[in-house]
Amino acid sequence: MFTKLKQFKDIRSKAKVIQDALSHESVEGSAGWGKVKVKMDGNQKVTDVQIDPSLLTDAKTLATSVKDAVNDAVTKVQRVMASKMKDLGGNDLARDVQEMMKK
């Protein structure tokens, strides 16, 4: 029982290190020929949105551009996350969780 608790604590510590490292990363997604920009940190939190005023008169184009910019940022941040996970031992973390669940 105590072994599992220690394993769980170790896994939480590793996850916290990865989460902290990701919070310092930043990506920018854009759409609408750069008229909509969305900045997101490595934990997929949107930190900034910039919209060119020329899009404010066309709600449909604006909505599509915002959606596309967010999706672009998510794709980019997922690449960053995968790289950080690899660099910081995130693959080991996933394996540790799987092994702990088997026992």
From TrEMBL:
NCBIfam families tied to this protein: DNA_YbaB_EbfC (TIGR00103)
Taxonomic lineage of this organism?
Answer: Bacteria, Candidatus Uhriibacteriota
Identify the domain of life: Bacteria
Q: What is the protein's given name? A: Nucleoid-associated protein A3E39_03565
Which cellular components does GO assign to this protein?
Answer: bacterial nucleoid; cytoplasm
Q: Which Gene3D superfamilies match?
A: Nucleoid-associated protein YbaB-like domain
Query: What is the species listed in this Swiss-Prot or TrEMBL entry?
Result: Candidatus Uhrbacteria bacterium RIFCSPHIGHO2_12_FULL_60_25
The entry describes its oligomerization and partners as: Homodimer.
What exactly does this protein do?
A: Binds to DNA and alters its conformation. May be involved in regulation of gene expression, nucleoid organization and DNA protection.
What InterPro entries does UniProt report for this protein, alphabetically? YbaB-like_sf, YbaB/EbfC
> Which GO terms fall under molecular function for this chain's record?
DNA binding
Could you list this entry's UniProt keywords, alphabetically sorted.
Answer: Cytoplasm, DNA-binding
Protein family: Belongs to the YbaB/EbfC family.
Note the PANTHER family from the entry. Answer: NUCLEOID-ASSOCIATED PROTEIN YBAB (PTHR33449)
The keyword Coiled coil is assigned to this record? no
